[in-house]
Amino acid sequence: xxxxxxxxxxxSALRPATSQAAVVALLRAPxxxxxxxxxxxxxxxxxxxxxxxxxxxxxxxxxxxxxSSFAAAFDVLAGVAALAFAAGVKQGRVSPPHRAASKPKxxxxxxxxxxxxxxxxxxxxxxxxxVPGLIxxxxxxxxxxxxxxxxxxxxxxxxYNLLWFAIPIIALALAVFSPGxxxxxxxxxxxxxxENEEWLLVTSFAALGAYLVIKGVVALA
Length: 221
What we know:
Number of strands: 0
Helix content: over 70%
Order of helices and strands: HHHHHHHHHHHH
Transmembrane segments: 37-58, 70-89, 122-143, 155-179, 199-220
Largest sheet: none
Structural class: mainly alpha
Radius of gyration: 18 Å
Number of domains: 1
Number of helices: 12
Shape: globular
InterPro entries: Gap/Sap
Keywords: Membrane, Transmembrane, Transmembrane helix
Strand content: under 5%
Protein name: GAP family protein
Organism: Solirubrobacter ginsenosidimutans
């Protein structure tokens, strides 16, 4: 369980996403440290709270349909969805985040709003760029499938979120301790991610989909 959680957390942090563009934009703002703190802290608190509620909902569904059967069936469905997404990106039917945001006359709302951000805007962006997606639901399903006591489930949700927010956390640390290098390092990382966006998305979601399908089918069998 813990190894799966760590792997999915790292995948969520490193895969191309709009949150990376938001972090780079905030780093260029005059008061980067305060804005990044608002972005990271608000996003973490809301995401952990939402994740905990979803775990409770998944646990209820598991009790209704059978905990192991529900978790396995969800893994199969999520795996198929991940494979379909990877195939869509590869065939050009699905536009990756940066490619979609760079289309003419379709500027990113987040990038536009963060051109002159306030702390409130940064906080809202922290939540908006970390809406639970497929990978998060897979993580929450795995947590709900375990027989955790008390706040253990919330602890695992928090661990995943800390990994998911690794980029803004690192950016905040750099802005505090090495502000001169923060833009350089994060800018280079973001540029590399944009250049390799399609390959990263296809590879990561194809691998994730294959893993989930196999895991779910084995569990159902």
